[in-house]
Amino acid sequence: MYVIGRESQVDQLSALLEAAREGRGSSALVYGEAGIGKSSLVSAAVDAASSSGFQVLSCHGIRGTGAVGYEGLHELLLPLLHRVEALSPRQRTALEVAFGAEGEPADRLVTGLAAFGLLEEAAAHGPLVVLVEDLHWLDVSTADIVTFLAARMSVMPALLLATTRDDRIYPDRSPRFKHHIPLDPLGQDDALRLVALHAPALTVPQRQRLVERAMGNPLALTEWSTSTAHVDGAASAERGRVPMGKRLEDSFLAEVALLPPATRQALLVVAAGQDSSSHEVLTAARGLGLEQSDFAPAETFGLITLGNDSFRFRHPLVGSAVYDNADSHVRSQVHTSLAAVVVDPARAVQHRAAAVTGWDENVAAELERLAVATGRRGARTEAAAAWRRAVALTPAPRERARRTVMAAEAARQAGATADAVALLARARPSAADEASVVQLARTEWMLASTSTTLPDRGGDELIALSRALSDPDDQVEVLTWAAVRSYTRQDLSTEVKAAVAEELRRPGLAVTGRQRLLRSIALALIGSADRLPSVEEALSVLRPQVRETDATLMNCLAFAFEDAHDLEGAERVWSAEVDLFHRSARTSDETVALAGRGTVRMNAHAIAAGLADCEQGLRLSADLGLSVVGALCAASIALARAWRGEDSLATAALGTSTELSGLAPFARVAAIASWASAELAANEGRHEDAVVHLLRSMEHPPIGLWAGGGLADVAVRAGRPEAVEGWLGMATAALASSGSDRLAMLVERTRALLSPDGGARDHFERAIEHGERSSAVLDLARTRLFFGEWLRRERHIMEARGHLSAALHVFESHHTAPLARRTARELAAAGSVRPTRSPQVFDAGAVLTAQELHVARLAAEGYSNKQIADQLYLSHRTVGAHLYSAYAKLQINRRAQLTSALAATHD
């Protein structure tokens, strides 16, 4: 392939194609101003790839399209839809619903995985080029999928190639492309070569004037080379300050001005109906009194062509110039005519909306129905756009406020947080009906629950809102939000908490099963609960109808169990959430549940299981834009890595957590990050720093309670035993209400470490008794370590060896290397020879990555690759790759051997 003046870019694309052929796929974004030669460059690359055996898939953006979403994705994947049966069931359904089938819409992550899976299937039969032209004009749902794919192409023999204008690059999308290829204006020599090729009859002075006027823009050079005005006219400094796109549009308009009036109107029909078939365009034109012959002069001029049942402009700038320079009345007539003939109802509504110049309730109602239908297909960005357009056409203030609230909720669901916040601000002063007021507050609260962009309402504001409502369901729900804020932010005063409790206990308020469940959760979160509902009780209320806010309510129930020091109960709630939201295709809610379960598992020292949850949660949160959830997962990952002595990985995870947390990290995230920082400091012998970090973790008591179990050890080593008093008082009070054996062990162990040497034994022995009745094996092992150290100092060598040997076995089994090293040193000081471990016995958790271990465990349980793909949000071929890697590391060669190979794996 060869394009004048683009030799380096051609070489780069050639290298990327060759790498793709060899299995090293990639993605590239070609960008530059209008007319700079993007299409010429990628067309040359695609032609070269096609002639050398690459299969080519393509789609292109068209200005003004994207009414219902995924139109571009359908165009791109249409040649592959016969392979859809190869996808896992969830991914296949997600794609079918996106393309209009009945069913529950999936998060865009699942739809993206389905598209990725189809590309993998195609690439398995030969190298692949995926061409996406004019990314800036694609429907947003497709553009989201394209950028999702761009980050994942490395695993297949394929190159994803996209073009966009440099002033339209989406800042949250372009970084996902592996390579960025900017196109700058041509240099003078290359510009002269291009002019000589297209207009050999021009004299040298004429070519030079044209090159000066075109400023290196290839489209301007080729278009203007036949124009006397551009060839012979002098270049103007004033013209040079006008954007090239506008100058090119003006030159196209000059051509259009030479056409008959009927042809100019025919061109406007084509411009307004670029997503319409030629039959629809011609029929709409006849409705305006035009004939097919009126299109002929534009075809003769080469401004439009007819092919593949649609009209195409010579360049997109022709269409934009024609449309933008038509007056609004004429455009309205054209859209009205198109609306009457286009077959697709959604596009017809869009044309009717474009034809309206003022308020129109009928069209607004149609747009509302379109928004609802579009949302059901999972195209939430397009749904939000339809809601916003409906708002603009709504004459009645009350109805306009209602639709603005719904637009805000649609924008929230689409991940457009800034848009949602702006719409909420616009709706708040005029929202009048109770349903809108509650929905506005609900959207606001849910935004504040997953993002640091919007501050949520204070507890007193939520109490006032509850009192103003008439529906008991809404009253209890709003009060529950206040309790949730109290728990997550730790910023409600005792007086506000008491007021929430008083409101919740008003006679006759909580009479239905749902109201009682919410009240129980809310009272538990503010420390006023008589009892917690069981997991089974909660699910019996929530399962029949899973509402949008139920995920948060389930989260709060899990928090309430954790606050009651029942980590096992909390894990059961989180696991129930993972299953419930996975089945109902609510990936975002499932990701939150994975993060919650991972955190609880870490607190319970189920390190491998917690790490698998948090790594999956971090991966999914990045794809779904859930920064707070990602921050929580990263902090928990840092804690696990620090326990394992993987200090560089722990530090990197802390950095990720800080970056995702923003300026106001949630108290829970900050507490876990402080705990991880304390473990890192302890690993490095910085005991004073460890004390400081553990004291910070106590600012969030549910986390600080467990983190503080290690405070006495580092505080004594730092010479600051008095620093333990606050935690000991908090833990003793919590123990009085919970009776937790694990907590009792930590309290007794702390007292032992703070006791004079002669009084420590009784506390240590009681701690071990409590620990043996709990499932906290790592905390028990730590207790044995500390006791063994004390015993050795007291010269009880044989007794010390027994406790230290038992502790070392647990630490090695759980890969907690710093504690294992400390215990081994202590054993050596006690004169014990460390037993040699059998070289044939090894722990799979030590050789597999967290994701490989997760995949291998599911495979050992009998799940197929497709079922695992659905469970972990991977493609089935990626699952196969993980299994292949696991087989090699475990030194096995078939699935049936996984159970025995994993038998030695410890948490």
From TrEMBL:
SUPFAM superfamilies: C-terminal effector domain of the bipartite response regulators, P-loop containing nucleoside triphosphate hydrolases. The keyword Nucleotide-binding applies. It comes from the Bacteria. Keywords: ATP-binding, Nucleotide-binding. InterPro entries: AAA_16, P-loop_NTPase, Sig_transdc_resp-reg_C-effctor, Tscrpt_reg_LuxR_C, WH-like_DNA-bd_sf. Residues 841-906 form the HTH luxR-type domain. PANTHER family: TESTICULAR SOLUBLE ADENYLYL CYCLASE (PTHR16305), TRANSCRIPTIONAL ACTIVATOR DOMAIN (PTHR16305:SF35). This is Transcriptional regulator.
